[in-house]
């Protein structure tokens, strides 16, 4: 057994010990978000290990180069402050790598010693270390608050610094997609285009973290939201923020700062959340939804009806990030599956409330926890077994020990590929999710069925 | 940075390459980097001096990690029955969770905590009010759940800053439990200049808190410890297979697939065989000073190197039967190796490699490339020191800077009751005279050809330039470097975690490596970079069938 020391019994709640976390720290989210700005080099203001770990984790997930710099704190910098390191870094980065933007995020180290990013950026500006037409933005991302999702949200919020209000609306809708795959961002843009809505999507890692192999290395690939687009976001008609945890803060900031009204939606995973997204787009733009998109919706409904016999009342355990889990739980319930154990490591009482609402009519009792960990999820699975587990690659240890089929979905996926290329958002993405779920369930059935029950036609 | 479209320098001159690497840097950075980029001259008895183990310049995209990574990730991570508890915000523990591909085998019933990730997940209130109570509680909870033999506590950056006394917490919990050894590592990420400081901090504590705890004599005629082997991709398993075949007993591996008891019994071995000297040579020194166990450098990367290392061990023990068994094992293993290498060499001979990895690894892997007829045209270490480049004899001349001074050096004396020289002075002299070198390792530089480039702490910009200018057939480094190199159309092999391959140590490992490099450098994929219409873009007419 891989997790041989995990007991079934849950005698008392752990107060201090986290085991097998269902989250990581803020800075990695900030780094991922910053990669969605065209020509941007993320910069980690802390020890060089933070940057190395985040780059490694993102590289293993996306299988793409992740460029990011670090302030390389030493013991001295940790005592006297990291201002000198950051000023030197800004100068070196603009000289050597020539990005359009440096997106600085802090770490537990620089936050604990109290480095003031705003003041350091001002000093860099005054000392002429930021060339004309180049930018340094910054987000506080203390690792001891929230999770990687919070860090993503904080960096996206800091992107609204660019937004300008010229007084003339640009006729576009801002879409903040949240922490989804590059392929998902591309799919959201495609759906908006099909609906006939002009959009500014930020951040946008499509074309950055699913770049082609051509024999040329572009440190700053062609994709990403441009600075011009980020500036123009202040003139947009409105903002659709996908995901309360990932995207709402930035949308509200744009509302407050630039008077761009916003609507916070769930991430468009599954039928209903996608319906709401398309409907919101249609209403904002005042357009009729295209036949193509209506066709895609119909195809998803068709597949649900075709596959329903295999989904009905199957129990599922889920682990991941709040915005994704809310939509996924809704999707599973909508196809008559039963998500019974749901855990996120990210804090947020609202999460538990939303999940309880979504699952209230289910025939089984639901275990749900924010700020939980996979150790607890595993114990729940031992006490109340499930038919399917959905989560990141770390789930495979539980899946093997409990002999439960696993659908890899979320972050990080370290042992399979394709997530950068095949979206799971929208109606098309829904097809892929259903295909993956069915494959997992039926592969197991084919493995387990006795010979007399083994069937050609399923 | 511009995209790479320039052609390879047909006849590259190392001085030109060096100048090109430095040309874009601000003057201060260029001056510093110039001392870390050395054009090799294979002089007799001495190699030119290189600057190493110095700070990375802020903003320069380095390959390096931190002290915590060296301590928890590298040294303590591969131990399997010690609960590793990280005191800090969640990230540090998360990123070190199963990412180094250390394999373990605890059998059906043994303790194996390697698949678990444990953390105190510090919150802002812990930063403000201190995290000692939470740490003590977390240790208690880990003890109650798992009843392990031992719990190791690791500090992350904020712990040092807020002044949590993790050592006292550990000591108190150890006393409270009575049957569980608890100790802590002050391995905050900001210490030192790279992972190397973390190796040192980890090994100091292992030596201080575990080694010597179990005096029970282990069976075996030829007892050794294998130091600096981390069982990545199963390397340690392959080496142990060979040891078993030879009749050599491995008391303790530091630290691949290791157990608490292995460390605790290490002082009962009769020889220390040091593999990755960068991460552990000081433990070998301490074991000799305190217990009288001599040490030699070994290298099990490369079939020839493996054979040589086995012969060295046999020579040390000087036992006819062992010497004969070792020869028999080598004779038995080599035909399979030779068969593969002679096939692979047809396709790899004359090809070129670059390696920037570790503090000993680049040197070790050069052996494997040599065996395949491949030339290493540029190499360096991520966290090496000068002695790793130039040889151990330079240690007395090393400048101790502020960053190194902060890393504790244990003062060790001979153990009053357990110091026992394994060989008499006369025997040692005789062995040395016969050619066995103790307490020594050569550097990378003397082993590199004239006019090759040796580069310390290579960064992303320089890596890209090097590949652009010198177009190696393969480039070796870590996961962060993998895809930027491959985008250039050059295959990249990870030599930290081996991508998904391994083992590469020992005889079977050598075969695996030959096949893997053959696959990489001869993969068809590198010929697909341009579409046919990009190679021949001219059009003659529209909508006319030819």
From TrEMBL, chain A:
Q: How is the cofactor bound?
A: Binds 1 [8Fe-7S] cluster per heterodimer.
Needed cofactors, names only, are:
[8Fe-7S] cluster
**One Gene Ontology MF term:** nitrogenase activity
Q: Which reaction does it catalyse?
A: N2 + 8 reduced [2Fe-2S]-[ferredoxin] + 16 ATP + 16 H2O = H2 + 8 oxidized [2Fe-2S]-[ferredoxin] + 2 NH4(+) + 16 ADP + 16 phosphate + 6 H(+)
> What are the entry keywords?
ATP-binding, Iron, Iron-sulfur, Metal-binding, Nitrogen fixation, Nucleotide-binding, Oxidoreductase
Question: What Pfam families has UniProt attached to this entry?
Answer: Oxidored_nitro
The protein depicted here goes by the name Nitrogenase molybdenum-iron protein beta chain
Instruction: State the species of origin.
Output: Candidatus Desulfobia pelagia
Give the organism's phylogenetic lineage. Answer: Bacteria, Pseudomonadati, Thermodesulfobacteriota, Desulfobulbia, Desulfobulbales
